[in-house]
Amino acid sequence: MTTFFLKVKPNAKMGKIVKRDDTHLDVWVREPPIRGRANAAVIKAVAEYMGLPPIQVKIVAGHTARNKIIEI
């Protein structure tokens, strides 16, 4: 498993991902942080960015925070 540290920005005008270094990503998603919609969008965006199915991306910490830890 590989661990990544994310800084998530919900309610963005457009979605994008910027890699800061080998383990840190900045993720902008359009969805609001309501009822897990932003988390689902983060999982989908990271999976697409990494070329993986979304089932392989898991948020392990920071479910209700902007700073999240994911495992792939």
List the helices and strands and how they pair.
Blueprint: E1 3-9, E2 16-19, E3 24-28, H1 37-50, E4 58-61, E5 67-71
Parallel strand pairs: 1-3
Antiparallel strand pairs: 1-5, 2-3, 4-5
Give an overview in words.
It contains 1 helix and 5 strands. The radius of gyration is 11 Å and the shape is globular. By secondary structure, it is of the alpha+beta class. Helices cover 19% and strands 35% of the residues. The model has no long low-confidence stretch (mean pLDDT 95). It has one helix at residues 37-50; strands spanning 3-9, 16-19, 24-28, 58-61, 67-71. The protein has a 5-stranded mixed beta sheet with strand order 2-3-1-5-4, with helices on one face. Strand 2 and strand 3 (24-28) form a beta hairpin. The N and C termini lie close together (5 Å). The protein has one domain: 2-Layer Sandwich (Conserved Hypothetical Protein Mth637, Chain: A), CATH 3.30.1200.10.
